[in-house]
Amino acid sequence: MGTRGVVGDKWSMRILWACAIGSAISLYMVAVERQQKNRDRMLAESLQDMEAESGSGESI
Q1: 34: DSSP letter
Q2: What is the number of alpha carbons within 13 Å of residue 50 lying toward its C-beta?
Q3: Beta strand extents in the chain (DSSP E only)
Q4: Distance between CA 27 and CA 37 in Å, rounded?
Q5: What is the pLDDT of the chain when averaged over all its residues?
Q6: Which residues of 18-52 are buried (b: 16+ CB within 10 A; e: fewer)?
Q7: What values do phi and psi take at 11, rounded to 5?
């Protein structure tokens, strides 16, 4: 019976590590996605500002 418990502990640790690594990877992917969205939003805002500045100069 003692051997069976050790094997169970070994597999439970493997499952625990797999879950921890999977969680870390998913958190990393979420952070990268948020950075990309922020970058895209900042680029769009700067383009809108540039268009607004050039548009006001042409209408005068």
Answers
A1: H
A2: 6
A3: none
A4: 15
A5: 85
A6: eeeeeeeeeeeeeeeeeeeeeeeeeeeeeeeeeee
A7: -70, -35
- pTM recorded for the entire structure: 0.63
Structure tokens at 38: 């922020």
- Longest Cα separation, the chain: 89
Measured distance CA(21)–CA(18) in Å, rounded? 5
Task: Please state, in angstroms and rounded to a whole number, the distance separating the CA atoms of residues 3 and 18.
Answer: 23
Helix or strand or coil: residue 1? coil
Residue 2 has pLDDT above 80, yes or no: no
Structure confidence by residue, pLDDT tens digits, 19-54:
999 999 999 999 999 999 999 999 999 999 998 888
